[in-house]
Amino acid sequence: MTGRSFLYFLALFGTTACGTSTPEATEGAADEPAGGAITQWTDSTELFMEHPALIVGAPDKFAVHLTDLTDFTPLRSGRITLTFTPRGGGAPLVVVQEAPRAPGIYGPSPTFTQAGVYDLVIRVESPQARDSLFVPGLTVYANAAAAPRDSGGAESGIAFLKEQAWKTPGFRSAFATAGELAGSFEAPGMIEAAAGRFAQVSAPIAGLIDAAGVVNAPAPGSRVSRGQTLALLSPSIGDAGSAAYAEARARLREAEDEYARATRLLAVEAVPQRRVHEAEIRLAAAREALAGYSGGALTEGGRVAVRSPLTGVIADRRIMPGSRVDAGALLFTVIDPSVVWLRVNVPAAQAANVSRTSGMEFRVEGSDRIYQARRMVSLGSVIDSVSRSVPLLLEVANADASLKIGAAARVFVQTGQREAGVVIPASAVLDEDGRSIAYVQTEGESFERRVLDLGARQGERVSVRSGILAGERVVTGAAYQVRLASLSTAVPAHGHEH
Questions:
Q1: Domain CzcB-like barrel-sandwich hybrid, which positions (predicted)?
Q2: Which of 39, 111, 147, 293 could lock 444 by a disulfide, CB 3.0 to 4.6 Å apart?
């Protein structure tokens, strides 16, 4: 057998996951010899094999399901060789099937000539996988009367057929392993704009929104550059702010004329250098005064050009063509999302376990993606009396803008301590009414729902204090589809294809 394999053998009583049962069928099945089912995993292949009671002289049709564990698809081609070796001595029984009867399903029919215990080796030779699987201790009975009877007992667990798993996009499973992770705790957080990367652009004076300018105004979601014109504003006649704006413009023109005149006179040595320097100072002051109203952006028509103070994305736009706005009215909100802050409310009981060297990762609502904080901006030193938490600010790179301002986050803060236990992929954990659950594959087509007590989390792995044992197989992809199957009491109508 290649790699580590785990073997689970169960003599199934009554009908298996291959079909449904009725009270009448169950009553009759109690007189039938009991068959069996075997589930086995190697590093590359999953085997789920069902067989009837093995009896000398009876052609016993096996149902061999083979899954390629590199992508969890059925083996669609290739030969399998079954070699049954009797433990009591004698020639082995060899059965070869060149191709599957249906994708992933082989149906060899060995005929035994002597009773006893056999060890089975299944060799897989397929373009998808080359493997060898060992199945020990298959008992062959001399006649049907010697075989154990089927008790007709009811099945337990959640039925999820191999055909369903093969047709479910993203279905995956993995072994739970014993391991050790860095200790951590969970805290709530919120994505917010970083300091210096958020600006609310207001009307510098009262006026009318220019209709022509609105046509070219950037819409929410549009990228803008620093200094780019966002809208044009025509000052309102008679408004106090507009009057001050007009006066500032007049003073700027006077300062420009004075500076030009002083420069000409200096050229013919009619005035001293000091006169030009004084005119230059008055010109700079006039420009700064006007900049307070218009950002220094004036059009030839005397309109105010409202400009973006930073490079980023328009998050909000509140302008209507021809509408009148008061001075200070909010027109645009501009955000640079390339870097954001994550504000975390650290529980007071855990505040002492947080330092600047603590590793931190998080995920936001509606996403399974794990993000890493780039650095700690600040850690509060005062506990909030209401929330009983300490504020923590983290800086997060957001080049792809996948983190949205205002999104809630679940933050996992590492404490530096180590925690040993059973480790499973974080993708195996589902939230069900506030409880953490996972689905364990007990057999090839049988699953169990387990309630988990989670411990530390590190990257894409999480430790489990109780609910799962090392060596058990957990569903890591499309677990929600297994959950839906658990809500149904009927086997899917298509059944097995063999």
A1: 198-336
A2: 39
153/155 Cα distance (integer angstroms) = 7
User: Does 491 fall in a domain?
Assistant: no
Contact of 265 with 272, CB cutoff 8 Å: no
How far, in Å, CA of 219 to CA of 214, rounded?
Answer: 10
State the SS3 of 204-219. Answer: CCCEEECHHHHHCCCC
The reply to whether 393 and 303 lie within a common domain is: no
pLDDT tens string 231-244: 888 876 555 555 56
Q: Two tokens at 248? A: 């500032």
List the structure tokens of 261.
């005149």
Q: What is the DSSP letter of 154?
A: P
179 and 208, same structural domain?
no
Q: Which of 89, 130, 139 is nearest to 112 (CA)?
A: 139
Centroid of chain to Cα 36: 39
Q: Residue 376's beta-bridge partner residues?
A: 394
Task: Give the residue from 66, 74, 263, 69 showing the smallest Cα distance to 175.
Answer: 69
Q: Where are the alpha helices (DSSP H) in 182-319?
A: 211-215, 240-267, 273-294
What CATH number has the domain bearing residue 65?
2.60.40.1930
Strand pairing of 435-443 and 446-451?
Answer: antiparallel
Which residue range forms the structural domain that includes residue 205?
A: 199-332
Tens of pLDDT along 271-330?
888 888 888 888 888 777 766 555 444 555 667 888 898 999 999 998 888 788 888 899
- Reported pTM: 0.62
Question: What number of H helices and E strands is found in the chain?
Answer: 6, 33
- Asked whether residue 371 falls in the same domain as residue 478, the answer is yes
Number of structural domains found in the chain: 3
Question: Which two structure tokens, joined as six digits, stand for 37?
Answer: 């089912």
